[in-house]
Structures are given as structure tokens and as C-alpha cells.
């Protein structure tokens, strides 16, 4: 009985060992074919870009509305003035002058500089096509009058530096054009006020186009204009009073300081 039992135990152990060997062999084979690193879940990414609809028509119209609004903020800042006529503008926002008249007497024009009083209104600033006034703390706007003036010509004879006379022809249409379009003036000449303390000493020519009519008048860069027809120029009004009386004048004399010396430019109007 003991021999049979031992044989059975030995047979069972042998079978178990064989199974263990087979299992180990199978595990070695499986491990041989598996990758060294772990396996991760691969997620396919969506590379479709996001988009946003752009309406160029609305963008352009919005930009146009913004520009119109900006223009309105500059020029349409107050109540319209209806009893005055704005004939000309000269200068920038906070400096310069305007040519103005009352509707009851349009032929009587006045020159008003920024900060001066006219008909109860103070000229506050100058825009591209209008003048901004102030009265009792309220802003008022006066727009440039569109006029079709008659064109007539006159000849100016110039005596410069004691040299020979030269002539140029100007038309009143050209004068009116410059008066109403100051940008055309600034393209050819720039003049700035020179002060001695709080008082204006004169008006200095800072830029001039040598091919323009202004250069043919004998003016040069750095000239300091101090007198016109023996009147000391102490304001924009003094400097351009001659404009409104030009039809009554036969001669204009301008005194400038050039190279620390006074020089007289004479214009004979025929």
C-alpha cells in the first residue's frame, strides 16, 4: 500500500512540474514578442482649424461711419450761426485768422484772429471748412461760404534788392482760391508769428516753394515781415487788413528783416 501511494504522489508531482514548465515556456514566448514599452491609447486629433466669418462690407461701412463721426466731432460742435458769412480761412486749429462779414452788410469784411471778439462771439478755433466760436460758454459753428467770385487780373511790379523790376500776373480768382483754401497756401509757404514777450514782433517765413508765386514776390526763407504800408504788424488783423482793401490800393510796401537788415519790397498795382 505504501508503494502505491508513493507512486501516485510522484506521478502527480511530475504532472504538476510539467504543467509549470509548459506555462513558463508559454510566458517566455509571449514576453519575447511583446514590445519593450507600454501600449498607450492613440487618439486621432482633429486638425480642422476654427474659423470666423468676416464681413468686409460691414467693416468698410463701420470705418466710414467712424470717419464721419470724427469729422462731425471736429467741425459740427455747436449751433449753426446764420447771421454771418465766412469768406476765408487761414491757419490751423488754435492759430490763424478768418475773413468774415455780417449778412446785413456782406461787402464789409473783417479779419478775426483766434481769440478775438466779433459780433459778440469769440473765435475759438479753426477747422478745415468751418470756424468755431464761443459765446456765454456755448459753442457755435460757422461754415465756409461757397462763392463764385468774378475773375479780374492785376499786374504787380516788384523791386527787390535794388535790382531790376520783374512782373507777375495774379487774378482775383487766384486770391479768392488761396483765401478759401489755406491748405494751398501751406503747400507753398509757411509763416509763423515771432513774439517779443507777449507781443508779436513780426511774421517769419519758415518755408517757401521757389517755383510758387510767393517766391516770385521776392520773399525768402527766414524773412521777418514787420511792416505793411508803414503799419507795424502786431496781430493777424494788422497783417491782413490789406487784403480787404486791395481794390483801393495802388501800391503795397512790405518791410522785412533779412540778414539783420531792414529791406523794403514794393508792389505797384496797376
UniProtKB/TrEMBL annotation:
Q: Which UniProt keywords apply?
A: Membrane, Transmembrane, Transmembrane helix
Regions crossing the membrane:
12-34
Entry's InterPro entries? PDZ_sf
Question: What is this protein's record name?
Answer: PDZ domain-containing protein
What is the organism of origin for this protein? Candidatus Sulfurimonas marisnigri
Highest classification ranks of the organism: Bacteria, Pseudomonadati, Campylobacterota, Epsilonproteobacteria, Campylobacterales
Amino acid at each position: 500500500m505504501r508503494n502505491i501511494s508513493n507512486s501516485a504522489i510522484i506521478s502527480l508531482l511530475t504532472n504538476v512540474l510539467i504543467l509549470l514548465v509548459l506555462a513558463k515556456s508559454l510566458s517566455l514566448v509571449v514576453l519575447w514578442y511583446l514590445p519593450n514599452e507600454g501600449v498607450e491609447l492613440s487618439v486621432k486629433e482633429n486638425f480642422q482649424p476654427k474659423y470666423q466669418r468676416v464681413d468686409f462690407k460691414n467693416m468698410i461701412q463701420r470705418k466710414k461711419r467712424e470717419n464721419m463721426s470724427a469729422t462731425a466731432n471736429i467741425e459740427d460742435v455747436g449751433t449753426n450761426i446764420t447771421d454771418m458769412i465766412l469768406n476765408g480761412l487761414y491757419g490751423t486749429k488754435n492759430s490763424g485768422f478768418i475773413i468774415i462779414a455780417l449778412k446785413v452788410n456782406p461787402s464789409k469784411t473783417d479779419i478775426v484772429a483766434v481769440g478775438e471778439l466779433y459780433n459778440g462771439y469769440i473765435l475759438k478755433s479753426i477747422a478745415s471748412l468751418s470756424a468755431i466760436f464761443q459765446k456765454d460758454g456755448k459753442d457755435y459753428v460757422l461754415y465756409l461760404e461757397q462763392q463764385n467770385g468774378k475773375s479780374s487780373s492785376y499786374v504787380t511790379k516788384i523791386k527787390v534788392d535794388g535790382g531790376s523790376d520783374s512782373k507777375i500776373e495774379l487774378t482775383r480768382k487766384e486770391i479768392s482760391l488761396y483765401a478759401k483754401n489755406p491748405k494751398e497756401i501751406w503747400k507753398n509757404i509757411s509763416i509763423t508769428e515771432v513774439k517779443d514777450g507777449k507781443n508779436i514782433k513780426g511774421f517769419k517765413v519758415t518755408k517757401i516753394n521757389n517755383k510758387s508765386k510767393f517766391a516770385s514776390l521776392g520773399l525768402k526763407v527766414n524773412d521777418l515781415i514787420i511792416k505793411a504800408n508803414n503799419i507795424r504788424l502786431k496781430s493777424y488783423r494788422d497783417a491782413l487788413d490789406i487784403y480787404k482793401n486791395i481794390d483801393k490800393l495802388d501800391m503795397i510796401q512790405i518791410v522785412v528783416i533779412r540778414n539783420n537788415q531792414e529791406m523794403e519790397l514794393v508792389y505797384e498795382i496797376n
